[in-house]
Design brief:
It is a single chain. This protein has about 140 residues and is mainly beta. It has one domain: Lipocalin (Beta Barrel). The protein contains 2 helices and 8 strands, in the order H-H-E-E-E-E-E-E-E-E. The protein has an 8-stranded antiparallel beta sheet with strand order 4-3-2-1-8-7-6-5, with no helix packed on it. It starts with 7 loop residues before the first helix and ends with a strand.
């Protein structure tokens, strides 16, 4: 039996008799690199709105450091030095305890009678920092 070289028509119809390695399998979830948790976006929650979370918004200080809590449509964001901007979420918008996708906890405390607020941040490693809202 004589094997002829592949011709374009033969490639299109029957393929070559030369062995070709199979294509690599598509990547699976387990093989893909993990997403950067700081860039995570939570599903849109229409209950994150002015009535529910704007009470947490403002500039918070810790010594010379400052961070900002703000709402962007239906997302609550924390802009923290050295950490960038992270979206935070809670099981319910009535909660004063929030978290980001990196496991950082954000616990807000609001005074019952006027200005001022505090934010305690507990990093995933357990480090705690306290921040006080200024000029709200």
């Amino acid at each position: 039996m004589r094997i002829l070289p592949c011709f374009p028509l033969a490639l299109a119809t029957a393929g070559c008799l030369y062995p070709h390695p199979p294509p690599p399998p598509p990547p699976t979830e387990a093989l893909r690199p993990a997403a950067n948790c700081a860039d995570a976006v939570f599903p849109t929650n229409p209950r994150v709105a002015a009535w529910s979370v704007d009470k947490f918004a403002g500039h918070y200080r810790r010594g010379e450091l400052a961070l900002t809590v703000t709402r962007d449509n239906h997302r609550l964001l924390v802009m923290r030095p050295g950490f960038g901007t992270r979206e935070i979420s809670a099981d319910t918008v009535e909660s004063w305890q929030w978290h980001d996708a990196c496991g950082v906890q954000y616990r807000f405390t609001l005074p019952p009678d006027g200005p001022g607020a505090w934010l305690r941040i507990t990093d995933a490693g357990g480090a705690v920092s306290d921040w006080q809202r200024s000029g709200h």
